[in-house]
Specification:
α3 packs parallel to α7, α6 packs antiparallel against α7 and α7 packs across α8. The chain is built from 9 helices and 21 strands. Bound molecules: adenosine-5'-diphosphate and magnesium ion (MG). The site of adenosine-5'-diphosphate has 21 residues, from α7.
Length: 352
């Protein structure tokens, strides 16, 4: 069997400053949590004074420090992380870090909220499919043997302990941790004197601040079938945008694309008719988790979930038929640039 592994490291999102912005920015890029991360700060304070280079460097260092702290607790590969200690344990672990506990509690909640389209317990299955390596298509028996150990309700928090009732259960916060970290950075940056800025953490963008001329940022969404092209731009002044797609990490075997977003009920790559999703929200972890969950749900269930009002977000759903479905609250803020796609409203998406 011929298998071709394609790992795309390109950012799923690109950001352009508003065209009339004249502000000076300072940018820092580093590698963490398996991706490139960029922090861009306005070097002007809220009252219009310029901020010293030393102070800007200190803010950048603090941002990187926050990311390293989150990574040290939740990394799924670092042997000392809470996640790995938990995964290697039979019944759970004591003395967990605050980020690990927050992510765990939020992830269990989000799993329930999305009727398990999002599940932080798929680590053994991702490893079986070997998305991080050459790629492997498992048998149904191999999948079933692991699927029965992925119940998110078999894990719970008790004080500073994270406990599990199934020794085989393993955690993976890959679909929520970067959005959570983006929000931590934005909360910190808002407490500094910087007038505005943004963070871009591998497919998760956080924006803050009032730009001097109140021009919105333009967040470009990657065309899922042409990673060098932009599908369209979102005009936003603040909040979070997260993107998931079948083009980010996948391998091909016998002409079939096997991508890294798993349907937690089947244990295999989600085949929902969607090829990419973007979620816009005021909460970074929610945006990240929902971009993955909506991808698994597919257009119809995702729109029904949006309309239920159970979570506060807007979404862009891109179907394999190259339709771009926009939810009501975002329709005015999105401008399509790729001609091969057609924009439709979420009502039309429901009737499709
Ligand atoms: P990325 O992290 O590549 O930007 P996502 O936010 O969509 O993209 O997260 C995908 C990652 O989350 C996978 O690599 C895997 O580790 C994990 N994962 C896969 N399927 C699910 C799912 N249904 N729910 C929660 N996590 C998932
Ligand atoms: Mg996600």
């Amino acid at each position: 069997m011929k298998r071709v592994l394609v790992v795309l490291l390109a950012l799923s999102l690109c950001i352009l400053p508003g065209c009339t912005a004249k502000e000076a920015y300072s940018e820092n890029t580093f590698y963490a949590m398996n991706t490139f991360m960029t922090v861009r700060l306005s070097t002007v304070s809220e009252n219009g004074d310029s901020i010293s280079e030393a102070r800007i460097a200190e803010i950048h260092r603090t941002c990187e420090g926050i990311i390293r702290e989150v990574e040290a607790q939740v990394s799924v590969t670092d042997a000392d992380s809470d996640t790995v200690r938990f995964n290697d344990s039979d019944g759970g672990i004591e003395d967990c870090g605050e980020h690990f506990l927050s992510l765990l509690e939020r992830s269990v909640f989000l799993s329930r909220l999305t009727d398990r389209a999002f599940a932080p317990t798929l680590r053994p299955l991702s490893a079986l499919w070997d998305f991080g390596g050459e790629g492997y298509v498992p048998t149904d028996d191999e999948i079933d043997a692991l699927l029965c150990h992925t119940d998110p309700l078999a894990v719970y928090v008790n004080g500073n302990a994270a406990l599990k009732t199934d020794p085989e259960l393993q955690l993976d916060f890959g679909a929520v941790a970067k959005g959570y970290a983006a929000q931590l950075l934005i909360l910190y940056l808002e407490s500094t004197e910087c007038r505005g800025g943004l963070v871009s953490l591998g497919g998760n963008v956080g924006l803050f601040g009032d730009k001097a001329d109140s021009t919105a940022y333009k967040v470009g969404l990657t065309d899922p079938r042409n990673k060098d092209a932009v599908l369209g731009y979102l005009s936003l002044t603040d909040g979070f945008v997260s993107v998931s797609g079948d083009y980010e990490r996948y391998f091909e075997a016998d002409g079939i694309r096997y991508h890294h977003i798993l349907d937690p009920k089947r244990g295999s790559p989600a085949k929902s008719g969607l090829i990419s999703t973007a979620v816009i929200a005021k909460d970074g972890a929610l945006a990240d988790a929902l971009s993955t969950a909506l991808f698994v749900m597919g257009a119809e269930d995702a729109i029904a979930f949006y309309e239920s009002g159970e979570a506060d977000f807007e979404a862009i759903l891109i179907t394999e038929d190259k339709e771009v479905i926009l939810t009501e609250g975002i329709a005015e803020l999105f401008a399509l640039s790729a001609e091969t796609y057609t924009v439709i409203s979420s009502e039309e998406g429901m009737n499709d």
